[in-house]
Amino acid sequence: MTKAQYLGGRLLLALPGMPDPRFAGAVLALCVHDENGALGIGISDVLDGITLYTLLDDLGIDRGVAPDVEVHHGGPVEPQRGFVLHSPDWGADSSMRVNEHWSLSGSRDILQAIADGTGPAQWLIALGYAGWGPGQLDGEMREHGWYAAEGRGTILFDTDTDDRWTQSWAAEGIDPAHLSMQTGRA
């Protein structure tokens, strides 16, 4: 795989008929995709009963000016580990710029900055992530599991959670009802 084929910074859309029911209708912000594997953060489902205030209270961080928002189900791997996808106007040594629209942070610093009102302009919080070993995501894409859409910040930050899958397809100019999960041979 050449560097030009890496898909980090895109949105992964679960194709209709996704064989893994945990990802049916899923949208993931793909943050890393290289020869070592891939890492994505789920942005299309929220966790029941867990909000930003729950996390801040658990970590002993004063809520400050932070709004109480839902926390996303980032994925099945390390569900106790927190991540913040955010606009690139804020950064720390622990932040990773993913594309021109978003960065990824996983440290306590960003939660403190959000609570203090000094954090990024746009952000969302997730617990857990989806991970793939070397070549695994590529294989799942060949088997019609995922579609790599443009990594639009408007989908990530300005679209309601429940609408991200349909709006991502619409932004790509694709009606998912017309997709076939079968491949033919000529």
Word description of this protein:
The chain is an alpha+beta fold and 186 residues long. The chain has one domain: VC0467-like. Helix content is 21%, strand content 31%. The protein is built from five helices and ten strands. It has helices at 52-59, 108-116, 136-142, 153-158, 164-172; strands spanning 11-14, 27-34, 37-42, 46-51, 70-73, 77-86, 96-97, 103-105, 123-132, 146-149. Strands 1, 2, 3, 4, 5, 6, 7, 8, 9 and 10 form a ten-stranded mixed β-sheet that branches. The longest helix has 9 residues, at 108-116. It is globular, with a radius of gyration of 17 Å. This is UPF0301 protein GTZ99_00590. Belongs to the UPF0301 (AlgH) family. It comes from Novosphingobium ovatum.
Compile the SSE list and pairings.
Layout: E1 11-14, E2 27-34, E3 37-42, E4 46-51, H1 52-59, E5 70-73, E6 77-86, E7 96-97, E8 103-105, H2 108-116, E9 123-132, H3 136-142, E10 146-149, H4 153-158, H5 164-172
Parallel strand pairs: 5-9
Antiparallel strand pairs: 1-2, 1-10, 2-3, 3-9, 4-5, 6-8, 6-9, 7-8
